[in-house]
Amino acid sequence: MREETIDTLVIGGGQAGLTMSHRLKQRGIAHLVLERRRIAERWRSERWDGLMFQFPNWSVRLPEFAFPHRDPDGFSTTASIIAFIEAYAAFVAPPIRCGVEVTALRRDATGFVAEFAGGSIAARNVVVATGPYQRPLRPELLDEHPGLFQVHASSYKNPAQLPDGAVLVVGAGASGAQITDELLRAGRHAFLSVGRHNRLPRRYRGRDLFWWLAEMGVDETPVEQRGPSRLLPVISGAHGGHTIDFRRFAADGVTLLGRITTARDGVLEIAPDLTTNIANGDAYYATFLGIVDDFVAARGLDHPDDPLARIRLPDPPCLSAPLRTVDLRDERISSVIWATGYGLDLNWIDIPLLDAGGSPRHRHGVSDVPGLYFLGLQWLSKMKSSFLSGVGDDAAALADHIAARR
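Structure for FAD-dependent oxidoreductase, as requested:
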């Protein structure tokens, strides 16, 4: 088995790995990037055709590299984001090898050894930049239902992929909400299982959500001040960007459901939590509006009030009298889309640094193991750590730490 040696090895060739390479080059640190398939692979193969990026164009940037656009307040297609990352890779010109999947990482007497098919690389430092969306999470609730088409959101492509009939979308986060909207516009009858969620406005008082987060400094919130919730905001960049309103979905024909608890003989049992989940999402939404209002008043900003943002539609029948069971056959549900999120997959790291939940122990990306780092994870050091516009700050801090070790 051939073994090479490098000062610093970066595992992952997405935006985080490319940004890490950029920061290492700026500091003259010899390194190599390994990517299991292609640059920005998950953007290429794990996104649906109609996905629109949830960040407005003006906010999309990587270190020393702006996102080209004609509409600052618009939202871009996946293809545009892939092209941007490819252009950034050309700008950075990283020492990268694609098609190399690291299957094991272990320690040795001088540092680390990364193993892959046909060889291995020894490195004094390793940066794991494989992203936060590694392992699609899909419950086993409906595994015993043959003939039911089931797909995780990471493998969903478009409504034409699905057989005729109604569609059940499980999970009302950003992906589940945007996919449900797409199904609705395609004329498909959709059932949407709504769990706990944090609903936020797409725009308020004339500005986008992310403008307010930046203006108020919320996106700089350090991880030490993070609240107990681990939910991501329910927002959409589709069709020019609009606020997700589950009552609007219901008014347009979507049947809202609570959390699915069991499934027997084609009959789903539904938890009595839909009303509570919607109410909690509404409360989160209203709290954010109040925070912005207080900020505007305290600063004397010229952003007119936005009463339309507070209009609430009447409760639809599926909310005022929630369903407790759903018979898949009776409702002609032929497809299920699991928009149930992702987990980390770091079991290939043969070093005892993962906690009971499979997450690495680290402080702002610096692990408990000297020389081993993580980049691109949600809330790595602050709220915007996993944003395209935020990964560069974390990469710079890690590059400084690596430089200091020399």
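The chain has two domains: 2-134+344-405, 137-338.
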